[in-house]
Amino acid sequence: MKFFLVLLVVLVVAWRWRTWREAAQLKKMNSGVRKSPSTDMVACRQCGLHLPTNEAVVGKLGNYCSNDHRLKVEP
Ligand SMILES: [Zn+2]
Questions:
Q1: Phi, psi of 63 (to 5 degrees)
Q2: How many CB atoms lie within 10 A of CB 70?
Q3: Does the pTM exceed 0.70?
Q4: 32: helix, coil or strand?
Q5: Is 3 exposed, middle or buried (0-12, 13-18, 19+ CB in 10 A)?
Q6: Does pLDDT of 13 surpass 60?
Q7: 37 C-alpha to center of ligand 1: Å?
Q8: pLDDT digits (tens, 9 = 90+) for 14-71
Q9: Ligand 1 center to residue 36 CA distance, Å?
Q10: Is 64 exposed, middle or buried (0-12, 13-18, 19+ CB in 10 A)?
């Protein structure tokens, strides 16, 4: 009977340690996500496609998904 009690305690401790470790990893991952800068999205003036600002082609009248679409609006 004493053996089962010890086994139970060991299992509970192992389970608690695992859940604590998973929670710590999740917290670490979430904080990593928060640290990354949020990318602003812009819509292409020609087709309406949304894309990150750093990938957009900037024209005189606005942002475009590609140089082709910029030339269609701004010849
Ligand atoms: Zn476009």
A1: -105, 150
A2: 22
A3: no
A4: helix
A5: exposed
A6: yes
A7: 25
A8: 899 999 999 888 888 777 666 556 788 999 999 999 999 999 999 999 999 999 999 9
A9: 27
A10: buried
